[in-house]
Amino acid sequence: MKYKNNIEAVAKLQPDYLGFIFYDKSARHFDSIIPDIPKSIKKVGVFVDEKLEIVKEKIEQYNLQAVQLHGNETPEYCGQINNVEVIKVFSIKDEFNFDVLQPYEKVCDYFLFDTKGKLPGGNGYTFNWNVLNLYPSTKPYFLSGGIGLNEIESVLSFLQRPESQYCYALDINSKFEIEPGLKNIKELNMFKNKLAVSKKRKTN
């Protein structure tokens, strides 16, 4: 049975990116039609060690503007994906060897730091963000892993600290689901509004 989704309702909240998971072992595996959404929202294909030709086919088929790579994709692999943003995912728990990022610097547009767990993404809990104190790069990154409404104060605190200097975006997913693929629009809107209020206070 296919999972339900409410893509259009999520799109009305005007996220910068909207992800579609093309990993057949995921409960959120997407094999449907993407409805018309505002052009301001970048469509992201999420892949895990997928064959390069299939990634390119999905980019063409769904008119993707970005890919998020959750597997063991090499720098050479990443460098062969053209004309879309490449977001390479690295999993962290309590420590991380940032040296592994260096070969990806020139072939990826962004890094994404997620929580290390049994699954490639969607583990539902946060990693120790203090690890990012040692982030050696100037490449912007996405912060991911178990971020929900209960984490909003921690997120706001993190965004005021030096290690968040290159935090480009927050990647949220499982903590806002009613069931895999079906998002809780009310909670998403609350999260968005709390971030917006904090940002407004910070700039005033």
Q: How is this structure best described in words?
A:
It is a single chain. The protein has helices spanning 7-11, 52-62, 75-79, 152-158, 185-203, and strands at 17-21, 42-47, 66-69, 85-92, 110-115, 141-143, 167-170, 177-179, 182-183. With 204 residues, it is α/β, with parallel strands linked by helices. It has a single domain, classed as Aldolase class I (TIM Barrel, Alpha-Beta Barrel). The protein has a seven-stranded parallel β-sheet with strand order 1-2-3-4-5-6-7, covered by helices on one side. The longest helix is centred in the last third of the chain and has 19 residues, at 185-203. The N and C termini lie far apart (50 Å). The model has no long low-confidence stretch (mean pLDDT 92).
In CATH terms, the superfamily is Aldolase class I
Question: Which fold name corresponds to the CATH topology?
Answer: TIM Barrel
What CATH architecture label applies?
A: Alpha-Beta Barrel
Calculate the terminal CA-CA distance, rounded to whole Å: 50 Å
Helix content: 10-25%
CATH class: Alpha Beta
**What's the SSE pattern?**
HEEHEHEEEHEEEH
The general outline is globular
Low-confidence sequence ranges? none
Q: How many extended strands?
A: 9
- The structure class reads alpha/beta
Q: Supply the number of structural domains.
A: 1
- In what order do the strands lie side by side in the largest sheet? 1-2-3-4-5-6-7
Q: How would you state the average pLDDT, rounded?
A: 92
Our Rg estimate from Cα atoms comes to: 16 Å
Beta-strand content estimate? 15-25%
- Give me the number of helical elements: 5
Major β-sheet profile: 7 strands, parallel
Family: Belongs to the TrpF family.
Keywords: Amino-acid biosynthesis, Aromatic amino acid biosynthesis, Isomerase, Tryptophan biosynthesis
Domain N-(5'phosphoribosyl) anthranilate isomerase (PRAI): 5-191
Organism: Winogradskyella endarachnes
